[in-house]
What we know:
CATH class: Mainly Alpha
Radius of gyration: 16 Å
Oligomer: single chain
Number of helices: 5
Amino acid sequence: MPYKDFKIEKVYYSIGEVAEMFDVANSLIRFWETEFDILKPRKNSKGNRLFTQKDIENLKLIYHLVKERGFTLEGARNELKSADKDELKIKAEIVNSLKNIRHFLDEMQEKL
């Protein structure tokens, strides 16, 4: 099978899927959309939000600043405007990697 390792990524994600990715309520995603101008999900004819990969990347940055680093909404907005987004992405990825390592170590400790 030549396409065994081929991974298809969706073009659009629903608000429910996005909320599940971040383990937050749909209402928080809608709230952040009103608070952060970098979030611009498309809407279909029914008005349902459709999030792209770029929207999800921006949500990762917002989540990192607000939930993980404890920024206020205003502080997070200012940080997103003034900081290097690539540097923020790297920091967010490091925090996520460390959380995954912590989870793995906790599981290993439980098995011992």
